[in-house]
């Protein structure tokens, strides 16, 4: 049985995760000369989406309501990792 504490703790964890991903997308754009002022590019959209989850998750009242956020954040994590890894020097 989930408690208020369980939901609050999960929101805290996912909020930190979202903030971290937002920063990673922003840093990726900066390192690659992508205009960070252009709100139409995919990197700024992803960064903004991740950051917007923080406010939206605060209205969740159950762990089940948090599942879509967690799923999307995991997808975003795989995306930015793939992009970052593709830029590593090949041996």
If you had to describe this structure to a student in words, what would you say it looks like?
- With 91 residues, this protein is an all-alpha fold.
- The chain has a single domain, classed as Helicase, Ruva Protein, domain 3 (Orthogonal Bundle), CATH 1.10.8.130.
- 75% of the residues lie in helices and 0% in strands.
- It has helices at residues 4-31, 42-57, 63-86.
- Helix 1 runs parallel beside helix 3 and helix 2 packs antiparallel against helix 3 (63-86).
- The longest helix is centred in the N-terminal third of the chain and has 28 residues, at 4-31.
- It starts with a helix and ends in a 5-residue tail after the last helix.
């Amino acid at each position: 049985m989930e408690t208020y504490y369980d939901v609050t703790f999960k929101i805290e964890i996912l909020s930190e995760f979202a903030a971290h991903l937002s920063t990673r997308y922003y840093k990726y754009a900066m390192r690659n000369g992508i205009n960070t002022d252009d709100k139409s590019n995919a990197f700024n959209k992803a960064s903004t989406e991740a950051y917007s989850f923080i406010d939206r998750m605060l209205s969740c009242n159950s762990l089940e309501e948090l599942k879509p956020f967690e799923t999307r954040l995991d997808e975003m994590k795989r995306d930015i990792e793939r992009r970052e890894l593709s830029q590593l020097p090949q041996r």
